[in-house]
Amino acid sequence: MAQVKLVDVEKRYGSFVAVANQSLTIEDGEILVLLGPSGCGKTTTMRMIAGLEDITEGDIFIGEERINDKPPKDRDIAMVFQNYGLYPHMTVNDNIAYPLKLRGQSKEQRNARVREIAEKVELGALLHRRPSELSGGQRQRVALARAIVRTPSIFLMDEPLSNLDAKLRVTMRAELKHLHHELGVTTVYVTHDQMEAMTLASRIAVMRDGHIVQLDTPKNIYSNPVDLFVAGFIGSPSMNLIEGTITKGRFEAPGVSIKVEAADRGDVVLGIRPENLELATGKGAINGPIYALELTGDATLITIREGASLICARGPADFEAAMNSPCSLKPTSDAKLHLFDKTSGQRI
């Protein structure tokens, strides 16, 4: 196992800055998720750790060793890609065993280790097949098995679940979490899917425009986003963000009046998550016509429209109402309210 440290790392392509002077320590044995929208620099950061991208400035260390000039094959890193990267002419057994073959292990040693790993990822009965005979989930498990078969110091995973359907992604998230618990290998995981980040990560680095905006545990990032970008990016459905003012201890916006503990000021944004809103009897803190109802099984997402704002609440599963009928919401008794400066986007 190993700690990974990035010190003032920057990546430029001509005048374009893909990763801007970032420092980051990935602790021994943790899963650190690089999360953000396309083009934020998360994959570039991972590829620099792997040695697949040159570093413009700064240093990367694995343990105590500076690895800037080390080729990828000498970094003791295993990568799992979005497109699996399997050899189509090889069987599952040979695909998994290939890293061991490169290390010069005997066929008997390779086969014994492959059988051991195949059982961990439920591929024992499929070792004779070729990738074309497997489902997407099975191919991804082969890619995982090939990565873990030689027990590297670091796993690098670049959106490994993005090609799978929704149900299979949930299953594979659980498998990845369990495998990490068993193996304890330091893992850097890149994704734009905040649900993957929340469920898998020890810590999340939320990235935007080449910068790490917030680095913390999933719980703290969800509960205490540092700015409007993080607040809107984390959570499904996302946090309600309502523009307004604070007057005499109340946040005021069209159709909205909520008590807050803050000094009077204009140009603020109130953030409140859907699960922190509930239906109100009579006039509530938030009032407007129903814009949409979405049954999710265990709840109904109730969206009301007031002016330019769409405000979503998580209501009871049996809630029914006509479109455009009036609806009132109020914060729950334990609701957490978030206030942000509209101009800077920073948390107040």
UniProtKB/TrEMBL annotation:
Superkingdom of the organism of origin: Bacteria
GO molecular function: ATP binding
Domain ABC transporter: 4-234
InterPro entries according to UniProt: AAA+_ATPase, ABC_transporter-like_ATP-bd, ABC_transporter-like_CS, ABC_transpr_MalK-like, ABC_transpr_MalK/UgpC-like, Mo/tungstate-bd_C_term_dom, NA-bd_OB-fold, OB_MalK-like
Protein name: ABC transporter ATP-binding protein
SMART domains reported for this sequence: AAA
Record carries keyword Transport: yes
